[in-house]
Specification:
The complex is a heterotrimer.
Chain A: H1 9-17, E1 23-25, H2 31-35, E2 38-40, H3 47-60, H4 66-72, E3 96-97, E4 102-103, H5 152-159, H6 165-172, H7 176-188, E5 198-200, H8 202-205, H9 210-223, E6 234-236, H10 245-248, E7 255-256, E8 260-261, H11 271-278, H12 288-300, H13 324-332, E9 338-342, H14 346-349, H15 353-361, E10 365-370, H16 379-382, H17 384-387, E11 399-404, E12 413-416, E13 421-425, H18 438-452, H19 462-466, E14 473-474, E15 479-480, H20 482-490, E16 492-493, E17 512-513, E18 548-549, E19 577-580, E20 585-588, E21 666-668, E22 686-691, H21 707-710, E23 717-720, H22 722-728, E24 735-739, E25 744-751, E26 758-760, E27 763-765, E28 767-771, E29 792-793, E30 805-811, H23 840-843, E31 852-853, H24 857-861
Parallel strand pairs in A: 1-2, 5-6, 9-10, 10-11, 22-28, 23-25
Antiparallel strand pairs in A: 3-4, 7-8, 12-13, 13-18, 14-15, 16-17, 19-20, 21-29, 21-31, 22-30, 24-25, 24-30, 26-27
Chain B: H1 11-18, H2 31-34, E1 45-50, E2 59-65, E3 68-74, H3 87-90, H4 92-97, E4 105-108, E5 116-118, H5 120-137, E6 139-142, E7 148-158, H6 165-177, E8 180-184
Parallel strand pairs in B: 7-8
Antiparallel strand pairs in B: 1-2, 2-3, 4-5, 6-7
Chain C: E1 4-9, H1 18-27, E2 53-60, E3 74-81, H2 89-93, E4 99-101, E5 107-109, H3 119-123, E6 130-131, E7 138-139, H4 145-149, H5 155-159, E8 165-169, H6 170-186, E9 193-195, E10 210-214, H7 234-261
Parallel strand pairs in C: 1-10
Antiparallel strand pairs in C: 1-8, 2-3, 4-5, 6-7, 9-10
The chains are: A alpha+beta, B alpha+beta, C alpha+beta.
């Protein structure tokens, strides 16, 4: 955190000053470790084992927060009797369908109940959506004593019973005493009077089990009562100025604004079906129809009418996974014609860079928008494979457009930061030359397309012609008015166009338009709330009048949990939101995240529907039953509980199960994306992990041009321990070549004790640190770490695995001559038996389009 | 004419003549030094902004003079950053005013070996034509089983995490309405 | 006016180098060039005529008190800067009067006066001041003299995310530093000490207006253990000045002669 979010880290230092204990778990000793009270070096890719052992510690030492757990989590829920755990099936849960290569999740559910996951995650369902999902919550069987062997609490307890300090030592390479210190510190600092927080970034997400990493932290935090309370939580430290915003208003394939799912071809054939499959009978998602109808009104204006399903039919449908790697694989197979890349640089920043560039070569045309031509824009003339002469520009047919972009100082707009806080940045000056904002580009592209299709009467072109696309144009450059766009995102009444002030005003009868329901209120009263800048020093510590946080300007989600079941603060010290019995409403320092007037003793009457089903002790209002999930009865594709699986390319056999890797992971079985052996590959004996440095930003497009930053970290380098340096003859400041079967890179060597070999299972295990900022364009250059990485991903969100993989390191510069990945692997590892990644039942997973090996049902059936 | 101490150019002489042998007094100040002040006091305006790098969202203040940025600093008022910026945030001025910024549209023909500069408006027209052509050529109306698709897999988009919410909104709105589904950004990678 | 200065508390420094960049940004200093040093994360190595803040990175096989690590190790950071000595070698050596003591009692090089003689460079016991190759003049931290004139704090202290660099009246900083030191000692960080704060601790400079809280010997951070200003009396300074004056007169005469020849 000190490395990548130094200013955010000032609050950690402030906490430390006030007595907080700072624990840093990382394979490397970083700038965060330097000021932490405790540094725990861990084998990259083993955090679930580590965190799972904390779960075990909490439960077996009876350190969990009973009143919180019993009332606010699903610990008492009884699970389907058909459920079998990974403990019973050597690393698989019940329901594995060998033929389809995926889980049938039906045995994971609550006894006699079907629960719907939060709406944004419904596309993860691999089976037929269940129409009456969540309707029978009252039939839920509970055991408040938590002693029934089939209740969630007991299942969690059994699942992690083998995750012991000894196992942590064997799996993670963390000495047991060190592990125990961490577990004890966490327990010690949790309860009524104290809270602990977890912070993470892509070191946790970029794994084939990325989602489950976060889930494990969620289990710990729920057991300790650290969610929805000040000083608690699990914080994703996001790495771009609006990466949160681009998830909320998603430039992502599987969602519409506000976490509404994209329609799926097989099921969501019309609006009724779409609503039926995606609405929840209980909890907040019962409001779903209002959000989709108001979104369609915002997009298609007067054309959206009740008799045409509000133009629902204008929306394209997905047939499975259309995420980045899936798309690039299709590009490499020449299935995609055109590609827009705006402020992103996949030729460096995305895994298996050579395959990314092969994808770019397969396009008819490419549009890149950035400050200066990036590696992605220049792939056709100066990419490594071009320099090496494997491909010549004369062979590359891609037409390339580079558009210079405006800087944030040259346009109005809002960023959403890592705390869901929208902040407006004002235009300071005009952009130079032909530089323009993306707002300008997209708006004027839209205008041109409307003109090109003007005379069409084809049904397919109606969405373009009916698109509500009237924004005020400002100045000579005809820049569209960003605040007018924000007004549409916020929503307004129809036909008056009065701004809405809260998402509770959003309607499903066509009388409101709202571009993103969770952002509703950001322009309350017609005032740009995101531009509010009342100094922090003139407000209380929650600072509600600085910017605007979604939803409803809440700074802390699920904050009902900061009060006990009776609505009183758990303690004076941790007071945040509470029930004011006199005024009969929730109150506190923040906007309460609950139905404002629902008393703590409210219990839903028989036959209640929608929001009325949430009881006074259901803080997790976005969940159908209002409880925090220790156990996930439906939402994830790879199991209801996080389980330790090894990375796709590991150096060790899974110490816990016969199933080596996540059985549900996505693989790309292609000649241009080969994998190492599952473990113990003699050609690739070391663990590698990639990361950022304080002095640079992502793939370098915003940092490697700046001399002030370049002088601080001028060159691509790798970090190795003195022991590994000696083993491989590496010299500090000299050169090394790092290789995987996909590619080789050269880098300067930084020999440092900040990396230490781990002793695991009587073996010495070396880890290599690889910053990923560099590539061949800019004022500071070097080889790109992503020449090494592979297409392989988490099944739930299709995020890649770049934080743990195996490599080789040798002294000296990269040899000239051809390299692998662009075409086909040049060196097949040989003379070594291939240990299986999967149990037999998993091995038959089908291979679909473009080499994608997945269990996601729709993809193999349609599209 | 009265001897004007302050008109002596060489400070050392002034020091001698003013008896300030230790070099500690005002006498040693050159005219420039005497009138020294922060250049920010000359700014025409201060524009509130937000750091464009990571997700912390530190407050920035952009100082403008003669329609040029003269300085970018942290904003004390921000309850997030309290005036601080990290090295990248502190380098923002170089990011937005640096000579690396390209100001012309570049075009590379198929199988071409060089960039060409082309006018912005022409480039926009060319892109629009290509979008239409690709979309029309790759349109899918329904699946083999008759389920609706109404989409194109012929055009894809990547990017968004460095853009404004308003920009992402228009991207999603236009591209989805064109039938594009392969819309992605850094949040996944 | 009140003397102002820096108190740099290295125990809370996170080595982010914001101070280095903020300083370059405000003072519009060029980068020194790209050089991969292989010395931890330090690639600018030392203070320079165009690097007025520099963060040192010290990797040690010794743990810090009160910290738990898997093996004995610690990583120390220190943001170095001109010390603005109470008795400044550079100022005393300067023959032109370019280097002055400001109303904030900081040591300031007047760029419009400096003739680049370089006497100050050798007179600094810390190796802080240096001449720029492009213009020949001597440059160093100004304690953001221009900003202070408008009541603003120096750019480095403002940017510093963790308040490792504190700016303020020297007497207040001293009190704060004493408290901080006592707190650390109470917490068992017995190796912590203050460097250069008091005159009696550093007689050779009579104490610094930019002083430090350190965790290891000064040499470890590339600081001299017992710095002393080389000039022991004003006479030396004036001697230098006399020499320079003579030189100037001579140069002036030559210039006049040349002008006459044209």
């Amino acid at each position: 955190m000190a490395e990548c979010h130094p200013v955010g880290f000032q609050w950690v230092m402030e906490a430390k000053r006030r007595g907080a204990t700072i624990i840093h778990v990382d394979p490397r000793f970083t700038r965060t470790s330097a000021v932490a009270d405790l540094h725990v070096p861990i084998r990259a890719g083993t955090d679930i084992a580590f965190l799972g052992a904390i779960v075990n510690y909490i439960i077996s030492n009876d350190r969990w927060f009973r009143e919180y757990v019993v009332n606010y989590t699903n610990a008492p829920a009884i699970i389907n009797e058909k459920f079998q755990d990974t403990e019973d099936l050597d690393g698989l849960f019940s329901g594995w369908d060998a033929e389809k290569g995926q889980y049938d999740t039906s045995s994971w559910g609550y006894e006699g109940v079907e629960v719907s996951p939060a709406a944004g995650h419904r596309e993860m369902f691999s089976g037929e959506p269940r129409s009456e999902r969540g309707a029978m919550l009252s039939a839920e069987k509970l055991d408040p004593t938590l002693s029934d062997p089939r209740c969630v609490f007991q299942i969690v307890k059994r699942h992690y019973s083998r995750y012991t300090p000894e196992m942590v030592e064997e799996t993670c390479g963390v000495p047991r005493e060190l592990f125990l210190k961490v577990a004890e510190a966490l327990c010690e600092n949790s309860g009524r009077d104290r809270t602990s927080a977890f912070c993470y970034a892509v070191g946790w997400t970029q794994h084939t089990v990325g989602v489950q990493y976060i889930r494990t932290a969620a289990i710990i935090q729920l057991l300790l009562g650290n969610i929805g309370r000040p000083g608690g939580g699990i914080m994703a430290l996001r790495g771009h100025s609006s990466i949160q915003g681009s998830t909320d208003i998603p430039t992502l394939y599987n969602m519409l604004p506000g976490y509404l799912p994209m329609p799926k071809a097989t099921y969501d054939t019309d609006l009724n079906k779409y609503v039926e499959y995606n609405k929840s009978a209980t909890g907040w998602w019962s409001e779903f129809p209002k959000y989709i109808v108001s979104l369609l009104k915002a997009w298609y204006g007067e054309a959206a009418r009740p008799d045409n399903d509000w133009c629902y039919g204008y929306l394209p449908h997905i047939t499975g996974d259309h995420s980045h790697m899936v798309t690039v694989a299709a590009m490499a197979d020449r299935m995609v014609k055109g590609y827009f890349v705006m402020g992103e640089n996949p030729a460096v920043g995305s895994m298996n860079a050579a395959l990314q560039r092969k994808g770019l070569r397969g396009l008819d045309w490419l549009v890149v928008r950035d400050f200066a031509p990036t590696e992605t824009a220049e792939f056709w003339r100066s990419a490594p494979e071009v320099v090496r002469g494997e491909v010549t520009p004369e062979q590359i047919g891609t037409e390339v457009f580079f558009f210079p972009c405006s800087a944030h100082t040259e346009k109005d707009g809002s960023f959403t930061n890592t705390q869901r806080l929208l902040q407006w940045h004002h235009k300071a000056i005009e952009p130079p030359g032909d530089c323009r904002s993306e707002l300008h580009f997209v708006y004027h592209l839209g205008k041109r397309l409307k003109e090109l299709y003007r005379h069409s009467d084809a049904a397919k072109d109606r969405p373009i012609l009916d698109l509500a696309w009237n924004y005020r144009e400002i100045g000579e450059m005809q820049e569209p008015d960003a605040e007018e766009v924000l007004a549409e995102i916020n929503g307004y009444t129809l036909p008056e166009r009065n701004p809405l002030s809260a998402y509770t005003e959003v309607k499903d009868d066509g009388s409101t338009a709202c571009g993103c329901w969770i952002y509703c209120g950001c322009r309350k009263d017609g005032v740009n709330q995101t531009a509010r800048r009342k100094p922090g020093s003139e407000q209380d510590w929650v600072a509600l009048q600085w910017g605007w946080a979604w939803p409803a300007n809440r700074r802390l989600l699920y904050n009902r949990a900061s009060a006990d079941p009776d609505g009183n603060p758990w303690s004076e010290r941790k007071k945040y939101v509470w029930w004011d019995a006199a005024q009969k409403k929730w109150t506190g320092f923040d906007t309460p995240d609950f139905i404002a007037t629902r008393p703590p003793d409210y219990r839903p009457p028989e036959g209640a529907e929608g929001i009325a089903t949430l009881s006074g002790i259901d803080p997790f209002i976005m969940q159908a039953e209002g409880k925090g999930w220790l156990y996930d009865p439906s939402g994830l594709l790879d199991g209801p509980l996080p389980t330790h699986y090894e990375p796709q390319e590991s150096v060790l056999k899974n110490p816990l199960y016969g199933q080596q890797c996540n059985p549900a992971r996505l693989e790309w079985i292609r000649r241009d994306n080969p994998y190492h052996k599952a473990w113990g590959d003699p050609h690739y004996p070391f663990v590698a992990t990639t990361y950022r440095l304080t002095e640079h930003h992502t793939a370098g497009g915003m940092s490697r041009w700046l001399p002030w930053l370049n002088e601080l970290q001028p060159e691509m380098f790798i970090e190795v321990s003195p022991e590994l340096a000696e083993l491989r003859g590496l010299e500090n400041g000299g050169w090394a070549t790092v290789s995987t079967i996909r590619g080789e890179i050269e880098a300067r060597v930084l020999v440092t004790e900040r990396l230490r070999p781990l002793n695991i299972q009587d073996e010495v295990l070396h880890q290599v640190g690889i910053p990923y900022h560099w590539s061949w364009i800019g004022r500071s250059t070097g080889d790109a770490a992503n020449e090494l990485t592979a297409f392989v991903a988490d099944p739930n969100v299709s995020i890649e695995e770049s934080k743990a993989f195996s490599v080789n390191v040798v002294a000296g510069r990269r040899p000239p001559g051809p390299r692998a990945a662009a075409a086909a692997p040049l060196t097949e590892p040989s003379g070594f038996e291939d240990p299986p990644r999967d149990l037999e039942a998993v091995q038959g997973k089908p291979i679909g389009h473009h080499g994608l090996r997945t269990g996601k049902k729709e993809l193999t059936e349609e599209g | 004419m009265k001897f004007d101490l302050n008109k002596l150019v060489w400070p050392a002489l002034r020091q001698v003549s003013s008896g300030d042998v230790a070099g500690l007094g005002k006498a040693s100040f050159s005219k420039r030094t005497a009138s020294l002040k922060s250049r920010l006091s000359d700014a025409d305006r201060v524009v509130p902004s937000v750091c464009p790098y990571c997700g912390v969202g530190c407050g920035q203040e952009v100082y403008v003079k003669d329609e040029k940025i003269m300085d970018i600093e942290g904003d004390y008022a921000s309850p997030i950053s309290r005036g601080c910026l990290c090295p990248k945030g502190s380098a923002t001025m170089q990011l937005v005013t640096g000579t690396h910024r390209h100001q012309k549209v570049l075009y590379r023909r198929p199988y071409g070996t060089k960039w060409e500069e082309i006018p912005l408006q022409d480039a926009m027209d060319m892109v629009a034509v290509r979008v239409k052509k690709a979309r029309d050529a790759t349109w899918e109306d329904q699946t083999g089983k008759g389920h609706p698709l109404r989409r194109t897999l012929g055009i894809a988009h990547l990017g968004g995490a460095t853009l404004d919410n308003e920009e992402n909104y228009l991207i999603k709105k236009l591209f989805t309405s064109l039938g594009m589904v392969q819309i992605e950004n850094q949040a996944r990678i | 006016m009140t003397a102002t200065g820096f108190f740099t508390d290295t125990t809370v420094c996170i080595g982010c180098k914001a101070c280095e960049v903020a300083c370059k940004q405000w003072n519009q200093l060029p980068a020194d060039g790209d050089f991969f040093s292989g010395r931890s994360y330090d690639n600018t190595i030392h203070l320079e005529a165009t690097t007025w803040r520099h963060v040192a990175f010290v990797e040690r096989s010794v743990p810090l008190s009160g910290r738990t690590t898997a093996h004995p190790f610690s990583w120390l950071f220190m943001s170095d800067v001109c010390k603005h000595c109470r008795r400044a070698g550079c100022l005393e050596a300067c023959p032109t009067g370019a280097i002055i003591r400001t109303e904030f009692e900081s040591v300031y090089v007047q760029p419009d006066v400096c003739n680049g003689c370089g006497y100050c460079v050798v007179a600094c016991p810390f190796g802080v001041i240096n001449r720029r190759q492009d213009d020949g003049r001597a440059w160093k931290c100004t304690l953001c003299y221009d900003r202070q004139r408008d009541g603003m704090e120096p750019a480095c202290a403002k940017a510093c995310p963790t308040d490792s660099i504190l700016f303020g009246p020297v007497e207040e900083l001293k009190r704060h530093a004493e408290l901080r030191l006592a707190e650390l000692h109470r917490k068992g960080v017995t190796e912590a000490y203050l460097y250069g704060m008091k005159e009696e601790d550093q007689p050779g400079t009579e104490g610094l207006h930019a002083f430090f809280l350190l965790l290891d010997r000064p040499e470890v951070y590339n600081l001299p253990p017992d710095p002393a200003v080389p000039t022991k009396s004003c006479a030396v300074s004036w001697g230098c000045m006399a020499l320079a004056a003579a030189g100037m007169v001579a140069a002036g005469m030559v210039a006049v002669r040349r002008g006459g020849e044209k």
